[in-house]
Amino acid sequence: MTQPFPDNIFLSGSMAPSGIECDAPDLVIDGELPTDLQGVYFRNGPDPIYPPRGGAEYHWFHGDGMIQRFEFCDGRVSWKNRWVRTEKYELEREAGESLFGVLGNPMNAAPSVADKHYNTANTHIVWHGNKLLALMEGTIAVELNPDSLATLGNFDYNGMIDGPITAHPKFDHASGEMIFFGNQAKGPFSEFLRLNVADKEGNLITSEMIEAPFPSFAHDFFVTENYVVFPVYPLVFNLERAIESGVPMAWEPDRGAHFGVMPRNGTADDIVWHDMDARWSFHMVNAWEEGDAIKVDVCSSNATRFAPMLDGTMASESSGLTPTLRRWSIDLAGGKKTVGEEMLDDMACEFPRTDDRFMTRSHRHAYLVGALENQLVFNKLIHYDRTTGKRKLWGEDRYLLGEPILAPRSGSPDEGDGYLLNLAFNKETSLTDLLIFDASDIEVGPVATAKLPLRIPTGFHGSWVGA
User: φ and ψ at 25, to 5 degrees?
Assistant: First the structure.
C-alpha cells in the first residue's frame, strides 16, 4: 500500500506529486491558438511515485522523470504524459515502495538495489538523430517513442558510453551535431570530464577525456562554432568529506572558477585553462565567438545555496547568492588567461533559453524567467534583446512560471519569429496552464492559454520539435 508523502517543500504546492498518467485529445483553449504553431513541445520534470525511504529528507532532483507531450496542429493542442520506465521506476513499482536512497544515496537504499542502476531520467528531453532522449546528468540516456512516449530502453550509443551524459547537450544546427559532456567521467568524485560529439545521424564521432583542476558540480557547459568550454566552479566534491560527514559537496570559493577552452576539432592536449574569481551557475544562455574572444551570456551568482561551505555554514546573501544575467569574455589571443565579466541586468533570473536554431552562434533574443524580490519564486517572463540591451517583462501574481521555450513560426527561418511556450502553475485554480505568447511582444500577455484539467508538478527542461 502506497504511503502518504511527508511534509516537504519539494513535495507540496506546485511541486506536489501528481500520481497520474493522462491522455487529453483536445485541450480547452482561452484565446485563439495560432494556426502557424505546428509541432510538438516535450517537457521533462520530476514526479515521484513513492515517498522517500524511512522518512529521509527529500530533494526536488530525485523524483521519477515524467514526460509531458503537447502536440499543436491546425489550431488545436493535445496532451499526454508518461513516466520514464527506468530500472529504478520498474523495480520500485514492482516493490510498491521506494528502494533507492534520495539522489542515489546508497546509505539509504534497500539491500535489494545495492548493485542496481540509479537513473531518474527527469531533467531534460531532447530530439537528435531521430531519437527522443530523456536525460539526467548522472548516467546514460533513456530512449522514448516520440508519439506514444513508451520507454524503449537505455541509450548508450551502442555501448560506446558507459558513464554520465549531461542534461544540457548543445546542438549545432549548421552541422547537425549534438555536443555533450560527462562530469565525473571516471567515476564518482573523479576530476575527469568526457567530451562527446554525435553527428546529425546520431552516430558517436568524438570521445575525449579531460582532466579538470578538481572534481566539481558542473550542470551546463558552453559551445561555440569552433570551441568547447568546460566550466569548473568551486562547488567541490570530496570523497573523504562525504565518508566522514555525509556531505559530498562544499562551496570552496578560494579555489576560484576555471574554464577549460578546447577546439571542437582538437584533443584533450589542446585545452587551455582560464581563471576568474569564484562564480556559480546552473545554466547558460548561449555562447558565441567575437573576433579572438568567446562570449558567454549566463545566469550566474558569486556564491551558491546548493551546498555549505567548509565550516558547515551557508554562504550569506551579502556574498552574492542571487543569479543575474551576465556576460563572460574569454580572450583567446591575449597572454592573460583570465575571464572578464559584464553585468547585463540586475533582476534575478533563471531557466534561460534562446531560439535553439541559433545555438553556438551569435544570437539576439534570450528568454528567461525572473523575480523582482524572492529569486526562488519566478513570476516574471523576460525577453532580453542583446542588440538593444533592453528587456521586456510580463507577469501576473497568480502564476509561477517555468522554463520558456521558443517554438518558431511554421516555415519562418528568422530568429525569434514564433511563440513562447510556458507551463505555469495557476495559484488561483491550483491547476497548470500552458501559456502561448507572441515571442516578439510578450508584454501584451498570452495570445492563447491551453487549460489543463490538473496540476503538473513544477519541472525542468524541454524541447520543441517542429512539424
Answer: -75, -20
- Please report, for residues 182, 349, 353, the alpha-carbon distance to residue 374 in angstroms, rounded to integers and kept in the order given: 32, 11, 21
Is residue 256 within 8 Å of residue 232, measured between CB atoms?
Answer: no
User: Considering the chain, what percentage of its residues have pLDDT values greater than 70?
Assistant: 99
Question: Quick one: 90 exposed, middle or buried, by C-beta within 10 A (0-12, 13-18, 19+)?
Answer: exposed
Residue 300, C-alpha cell as written in the block = 550566474
416 contacts 440 by C-beta, under 8 angstroms: yes
pLDDT at position 372 = 80
For the chain, the first-to-last Cα distance in angstroms comes to 43
pTM of the model: 0.96
Question: Which three cell numbers, joined as nine digits, stand for 127?
Answer: 530530439
